[in-house]
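Field log, afternoon session.

UNIT: design team B
ACTIVITY: writing a sequence onto a fixed backbone
BACKBONE:
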């Protein structure tokens, strides 16, 4: 079952996009944002989110590939 962005409707969100939604919005979240819409929602840049993903990967978080 592919996830889609609740803001823009982009389909086939990546594992990292779904992972960062869960990490930042809570593990019970059932609505996901694509990277661009998540950045808008959180009022940060896409690069900020990508940097966070790299941090979480380095910490060994299993939500990211």
């Amino acid at each position: 079952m592919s996830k889609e962005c609740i803001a823009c409707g982009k389909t086939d969100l990546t594992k990292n996009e779904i992972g960062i939604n869960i990490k930042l919005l809570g593990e019970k979240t059932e609505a996901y944002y694509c990277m661009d819409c998540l950045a808008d929602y959180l009022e940060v840049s896409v690069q900020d989110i990508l940097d966070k993903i790299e941090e979480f990967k380095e910490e060994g978080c299993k939500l990211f590939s």
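LOG NOTE: The mean pLDDT is 94.
NEXT ACTIVITY: expression trials, pending approval
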